[in-house]
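[recover] target loaded
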């Protein structure tokens, strides 16, 4: 194994975001000071977001559409706080998972075919990180552009901020307006970074787990081929038996990695899944039914697109990690095991092969708090729940207006 620490664009970017959102495990006193500063400004941004939205709800309660917008914001921030608290409490486990992947998987000691599989995985990881970094500012762009559109051509004494401040300050005057506008925009993007940060590494870990299962499948199919054509049958059986034991060890490493991921992220996934369909239901209602301004619809549209993108990537990577772990059963069965002699080694080989197949029938998967596995079916289920919430809210408001 290579002694150097492997890294690429996706891993370096995810590390950078984790470090500057406060969930990194510091290695020295300087990094610990940096982490404390990071935690301080993230705490300020998150608590400020909760305060602004709660105060706005208190003062604008008779307006259901605006209050729904504020409730959606407050719920997103609350979910972010809970996820950050969970991962901060498990920072040591997070560092352990990262070190485990670095030690066993992120290296360059693969053969040419395995290196090709690994390079394809790195390419997908890079594309995912670029998508996440591009989707974040797009999803939050509506919050920034809305006050700019509203203020364009209007009176400076009536300028609005991304979020209304219920304080007796001259916030419409220069330079107070500009300073508060910049502060709110910074808080918006800090909260957005904290929102995606806990799950950025999760999707990268899932993609690399998929890659390791594919490498394992390649090894299981490849050890049947030997360079010497004149190898004796008994020696060939022993060669296959030793290669199978190495594959079992590798399989156990990948399974252990998936179990570490499950223990680290299961509660975070549960929290997000519990409210995601409700949030998207709010988005659908505000986009399609509510009597709101076009600029406000832009905010909900961008938020809906970002939520769908997040849900799709999470369920896609979790689903295919589970699928690749189950493919081990088919892969080992496709080998030339039936040609091995029925001696002691041959019988042991067949017995071990059966245990591998039985173990692979129980897929490695991530669950939402242990309640259900996260798969592509989860994606369709949450979309169905979103439509149900949207229909319920639509019918409730129509009935209220009719009365």
């Amino acid at each position: 194994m290579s002694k150097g620490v492997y890294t690429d664009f996706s891993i370096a970017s995810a590390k950078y975001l984790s470090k500057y959102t406060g969930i990194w495990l510091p290695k020295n006193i300087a990094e610990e000071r940096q982490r404390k500063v990071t935690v301080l400004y993230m705490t300020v941004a998150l608590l400020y977001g909760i305060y602004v939205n709660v105060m706005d709800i208190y003062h604008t309660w008779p307006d259901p559409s605006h209050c729904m917008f504020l409730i959606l914001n407050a719920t997103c921030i609350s979910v972010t706080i809970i996820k950050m608290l969970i991962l901060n409490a498990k920072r040591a486990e997070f560092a352990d998972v990262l070190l485990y992947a670095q030690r066993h998987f992120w290296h360059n000691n693969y053969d040419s075919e395995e290196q090709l599989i690994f390079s394809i995985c790195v390419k997908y990881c890079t594309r995912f990180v670029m998508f996440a970094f591009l989707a974040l500012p797009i999803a939050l762009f509506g919050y920034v552009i809305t006050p700019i559109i509203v203020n364009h051509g209007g009176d400076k004494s009536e300028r609005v901020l991304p979020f209304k401040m219920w304080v007796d300050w001259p916030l419409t005057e220069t330079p107070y307006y500009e300073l508060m506008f910049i502060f709110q925009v910074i808080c918006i993007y800090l909260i957005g970074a904290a929102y995606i940060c806990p799950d950025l590494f999760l999707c990268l870990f899932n993609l690399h787990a998929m890659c390791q299962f594919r490498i394992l499948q390649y090894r299981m199919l490849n050890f049947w081929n030997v360079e010497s054509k004149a190898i004796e049958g008994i020696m060939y059986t022993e060669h296959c038996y030793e290669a199978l034991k190495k594959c079992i060890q590798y399989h156990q490493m990948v399974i252990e990695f998936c179990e570490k991921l499950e223990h680290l992220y299961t509660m975070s996934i549960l929290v997000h899944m519990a409210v995601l369909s409700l949030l998207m239901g709010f988005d659908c209602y505000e986009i399609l039914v509510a009597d709101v301004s076009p600029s406000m619809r832009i905010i909900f549209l961008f938020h809906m697109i970002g939520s769908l993108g997040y849900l799709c990537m999470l369920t896609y990577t979790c689903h295919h990690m589970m699928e690749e772990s189950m493919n081990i059963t088919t892969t080992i069965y496709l080998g030339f095991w039936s040609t091995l002699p029925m001696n002691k080694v041959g019988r042991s080989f067949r017995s071990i092969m059966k245990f591998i197949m039985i173990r692979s029938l129980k897929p490695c998967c991530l669950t939402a708090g242990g309640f259900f596995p996260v798969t592509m079916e989860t994606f369709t289920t949450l979309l169905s729940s979103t439509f149900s919430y949207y229909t319920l809210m639509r019918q409730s408001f129509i009935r209220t207006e009719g009365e």
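[recover] notes: The mean pLDDT is 84.
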